[in-house]
Design a protein that fits this description.
TIM Barrel, 3 domains, alpha/beta, three-stranded antiparallel sheet
Length: 518
């Protein structure tokens, strides 16, 4: 059985979705999570597109990944210039990525109408671009853009494009419009494999499917069955238009159903999915296979009765992909879930303990309000401390007031009254910045009167999204990430007041740090 390699393009093709934009910090965090999960290749972006993209490559080059290889995306050289003069190809080299993935035209209508080039001019650009990057010491993957449409339009020219790219380490056949059906994929890939053998082309082969006809995952599975060994996709299927192959569906299908020996930490799949949703500032799809909140949910009737008696209404065990069973309106199942979470903190609590019910009730209330804390370890730890901890409240906020205005630039001030270890405190924190910065500074200042260690905590990420959509009266979910040395953690606040939600998330982040480190 051939080894299948996965190329994740969440940070390149995924960002072509109209509603997604990642900061450099977001991209690095996602890349580290993909590496930890076990992805083979991470297409990190298009370094020639803008300065931010190139800067992000230079930042990731400083980080030693355990498994994943960084890939820089780009195109073949422009017409009528030499490869070594092409800014796009030179940006790939400047990115310091060890692998280049470049695309070129395969469909004749694009060669003629977009490039306004002759057939052979395009073939020459493909060949010279690959050769240039290879001579610079890079491994080269070549995306045959619009391959399936091009093949259906002019089979001979599509195959000539393959021949021109034969020096590439991997030839990737792209369904760029996403309209190819599984029956067509089976026929075309079969013809291509026959051609490769006939022409003695030794390059590895890959496929890159878009999901415009809803067939991206199915097409990827067929490609693997036919001998394709590199598959491209994105976490949660993000991408332009309707998206790409959803790796959260494809990978468990390959590992659990097809039994391919892909070395990934499958139990971290749901966590990875939620992390990318959070950093993309997009609500998770509850109906997403394998990782969605409802993927293993059951509500009443025959299903719940069967499950309670040991029979199955699930195609796999949810724990295999890091998800969990959810029996709606069932105290028994809910308590069991709480008990499992408490075990992570070395607490062996009987499900009949009254505080287990209290935690369950609080979680259900938080979920109704839109907190969505399931994948956040810091939030789980705080729940455990609230109901089973012994330290009590280290600090407490009694009142707060925030002023923000333009005063020769942005100026904000936060006043907080509260207690630290039972002693009354009042602090004022003026900042040349925004209201969240003022709240963060004020609360840290109040806590630091007793706990100097709090100064080690820095705020590294801030995201806002709608929690409950009620028009102008909507509540918002604020997600904040903190860093303490190498440890990073996130907490959530929800309110109809964005500042109140922000302060709640900050307060919980500081509380988590103090309970863990003092």
């Amino acid at each position: 059985m051939k080894k299948i390699k996965i190329l994740d393009t969440t940070l390149r093709d995924g960002t072509q979705s109209p509603d997604i934009s990642f900061s450099i910090r977001d991209k690095i965090e996602i890349a580290k999570a993909l590496d930890d999960f076990g992805i083979d290749y991470i297409e990190f972006g298009w370094p020639a597109s803008n300065k931010k993209e190139l800067d992000s490559f230079l930042e990731i080059s400083k980080i030693r990944l355990k498994k994943s290889k960084i890939v820089a995306f780009g195109s073949t050289r422009r017409m009528n210039i030499k490869a070594n003069e092409d800014k796009n190809l030179n940006a790939i080299i400047k990115s310091k990525a060890p692998i280049a993935c470049i695309f070129g035209k395969t469909w004749l209508q694009h060669v003629k109408r977009q490039l306004k080039a002759k057939k052979d001019e395009n073939l020459k650009a493909i060949e010279e671009s690959i050769r240039f990057l290879k001579r610079k010491g890079l491994k080269v993957f070549y995306d045959l853009e619009h391959f399936f449409d091009g093949f259906k339009d002019n089979r001979e020219y599509a195959l000539r494009c393959i021949s021109s790219a034969r020096e590439a380490d991997c030839l990737i056949f792209c369904d760029t419009n996403g309209g190819t059906l599984p029956t067509e994929v089976r026929k075309i890939i079969g013809d291509v494999i026959t051609f490769l053998k006939k022409e003695n082309i030794k390059s590895e082969t890959g496929c890159h499917f878009h999901n415009d006809s809803g067939c991206a995952v199915a097409n990827s599975l067929i490609a693997v069955e036919l001998g394709i060994t590199q598959i491209h996709g994105t976490i949660n299927g993000f991408g332009e238009r309707t998206g790409n192959t959803d790796l959260c569906q494809l990978i468990p299908n390959l590992v659990l159903k097809k039994k391919f020996p892909i070395q990934v930490k499958l139990k971290k799949l749901t966590y990875l999915s939620n992390l990318v949703y959070t950093l993309a500032n997009i609500k998770p799809s509850t109906h997403q296979p394998y990782v969605g909140k409802n993927a293993f949910s059951h509500k009443g009737g025959v299903h719940v009765d069967a499950i309670s008696k040991g029979a199955s209404y699930e195609h796999i065990k949810p724990e295999l992909v890091g998800n969990k069973r959810n029996i709606i309106l069932s105290d028994l199942s809910g308590k069991a879930n709480v008990v499992e979470v408490l075990k992570k903190f070395n607490l062996k609590i009987n499900k009949n303990h009254p505080n287990v019910t209290k935690i369950l009730n609080k979680v259900e209330e938080m979920e109704r309000k839109g907190y969505n804390i399931g994948s956040l370890p810091a939030e789980q730890f705080l729940l455990k401390e609230e109901f089973f901890g012994k330290r009590g409240k280290i600090f407490e906020i009694k009142t707060w007031k925030i002023l923000s205005e333009q005063r020769n630039g942005e100026f904000s001030e936060c006043i907080i009254t509260g207690t630290v270890d039972g002693k009354n405190r009042e602090v004022v924190a003026p900042v040349n910045g925004g209201p969240v910065d003022a709240a963060y500074s004020a609360l840290k200042k109040m806590i630091a009167t007793n706990y100097k260690e709090i100064k080690k905590v820095s705020l590294i990420n801030y995201k806002v999204m709608i929690a409950e959509d009620k028009g102008a009266e909507s509540s918002v979910r604020v997600y904040i990430e903190f860093k303490n040395g190498k440890e990073e953690f996130g907490t959530v606040g929800v309110s109809t007041n964005i500042l109140e939600a922000s302060l709640e998330a900050i307060e919980k982040g500081f509380r988590y740090f103090l309970l863990r480190n003092t």
